[in-house]
Amino acid sequence: MTAGEQIKRVFVSHSHRDNAIARALVQALLDAGFEAWYDELSLGAGVLAQTIERELRASDAYIVILSPAAIASPWVESEWYAAWELLREPGQRLKSLTPVVAEPCEIPLLLRGMYRVDCAALGVEAGAEQLVRALGGRRARPEERQPARWDEARVIQAHTRGCYCLDWSPDGRWLASGSYDTRIKVWDTASWETARILSGHTKGVDGVAWAPNSQTLASASLGSRLRLWNALTGAELGELNGHADGVTDLSWSPDGLRLASCSTDHTIRIWDVATARALNIIPGAAPLTSVAWSPDGRWLATTARDAVVRVWDALTGDQTRALTGHQGVAHCVRWSPDGQTLASSGNTTVRLWRAATGEELASCVAGSGHVSRLAWRPDGALIASCGADRAVRLWGARDLRGVAMLGGHTDWIHGVAWSPGGKTLASCGGQADGTIRLWEAMAR
Question: pLDDT tens-digit profile of 153-162?
Fold first, then answer.
């Protein structure tokens, strides 16, 4: 979808074994004001194939619900191929194709590079919310339905020299944390015991990021080298060497084949992970503080110490946007799960930007000091922020309306990360703290 295009009518393709989730998603679409077609409710007279073609051509968006049953269905396969062909035809009404994962399954090759909604990981309710947002609609104001009271569910004494970064694996089984003791710990989220300790960095670890396969972990430190690990065995897989100064952040491409890193040496590097070779070196204008890959794999966003948020073409390295508004420094930028919005943080503020145009959508004062890191909840309804004032704050993602403030850390908070299903938020504290704290919403 491009800016200004509006979706009204949605075609939902599914196997009849997935009728239950199809009904739930269709109801969510109807509640949000969309028109929705799927054959259990709307099949009219005429030959099925002709009806499907007619309805596809009359729709603005196509959704395919994926499961083992759907993958095995020749009807579902023929529908996603037909939708894909229509997308390539000039002048057609159909403008978007969104896979929705109902059960874990092998994603068809044609659909792998596309933005998708994972109801198997998120749950149907959160997945429906994310789907509606991705199509440009709203069932209601999400932040008004968020509980304002949150429990500190667990405190983990993680590192003796502070915890400076953390990331949850996409499958939810592991949480990785890094410390200025130069070590990385991998935590089993079922028991919250240390599953592995990864040693090899010679300077403090400032960034960790899981690959989409939930097995490979990338790490960065105050030094110039990145390291790759098989986090399930603890084996180091290799180094990515080329930056001239400390690496401040890293982000995987959605397909898991490339890794983006940024550094205080003013450059972004895009690495071919298989060969450990830099495919592109993008010069920045100032020391860089964060990098994030868009969900569709087309763009990179960065922040820097000149307070500018920049968007880059991930293939060519060309700068496409420079977003100004932060004062002094910009610390962090993250894409919304649907790729339509950027959230960024700086010296006391958080800002939202429309990704397609660079328009500033909202801003708020998010603390009394630097706001170091941000994280979108997977359903796109909440943004967590943290920083120098030792508080975690939750914001409604539509207009940055404050939802909750969570206290307990005793030092600057350096990282926040949501579990894949969005039920739990993890945060980590610096030198005088060293804990990971887990937060969950209280029942209303």
Answer: 999 999 999 9
